[in-house]
Amino acid sequence: MKFEEKTVDKKLLYKGKIIELNLHRVKLPNGKESSREIVNHPGGVAILTYKNDDTLIMVEQFRKPLEKTILEIPAGKMEKGEKPEVCGRRELEEETGYKAKTFKYLGKIVTSPGFCDEVIYIYEARDLYKGRNDIADEDEFINLKEIKTDKIKDMIKSGEIIDAKTVSSFMFI
Amino acid sequence: MKFEEKTVDKKLLYKGKIIELNLHRVKLPNGKESSREIVNHPGGVAILTYKNDDTLIMVEQFRKPLEKTILEIPAGKMEKGEKPEVCGRRELEEETGYKAKTFKYLGKIVTSPGFCDEVIYIYEARDLYKGRNDIADEDEFINLKEIKTDKIKDMIKSGEIIDAKTVSSFMFI
Predict the structure, then answer these.
(1) Which of A48, A83, B26, B163 fits B5 for a cystine, CB–CB 3.0-4.6 Å?
(2) The pTM is what?
(3) Across the interface, do B168 and A172 touch by the CB < 8 Å criterion?
(4) Domain A44-172 coded CATH 3.90.79.10
(5) Which domain of life is it from (chains A, B) (predicted)?
């Protein structure tokens, strides 16, 4: 069976720096109407960043929504009209100070398809070399850590790493 | 280094059926101020649902934010004050019509820590038996599919399955 929900009315509730919130009135497959709260997000790119064959560069960052510092692979939002690979290479350099000779697309994920359209494209970066280190986002405060991939797998299974893009990216290794 | 962003002011922008949107004025580690758009979500539970040792029950569902039908493991939102296991058992029965003799916690993920506080708890359900099949959410239209775990892994790697909670759950298998 094919289901669909057609928008019969749409109201922009909020347009912010990063997200937009829209309330859709939709027609359900059974003919009834319902509402859907939808967060529109520009999407992002996350990068499995290989310092060498068995070690990744990870980013430790305070995440305000969780009121907690967590460990993630380097990642960032796409700017308007920016292609995923361009975004990924930019974010890699901004967050780690490295550029990559090898930059390969692995797959994509949708983070919260029930209420949000965010897509994260996952890449792997290898053969790193020093780029600029003066281009970090001035609103962003991060610590870099080099961690072995086997250790990261253990940290995922033990619950020390909970970030969905980081956990998901390991399915592409 | 420990970083933190203290809220100095907070404004509720929207309180909906499912999500709430708050704009925080925060003090950054460098003393400057910035704003953070934060979506508050009740969180949810996702269930690796074993029909037998090598086959999962999957849910195909139209996701309005993506304007697309995608394949996911059974999952749902927590009701106010509901414990994750209670939510998981309820959603399992609502979506698949099954109850489970074995219901085991595997881990949790945060889906979009940059702007949203959603946490998804991941469980595995085994030893299924028929529950009620008249309690489905009336706003929800789903198709159930039984798919072998090896096939699901292939579908993740090939990009046919992109749902982050589904992809992440396979790191706990």
Answers:
(1) B26
(2) 0.96
(3) no
(4) yes
(5) Bacteria
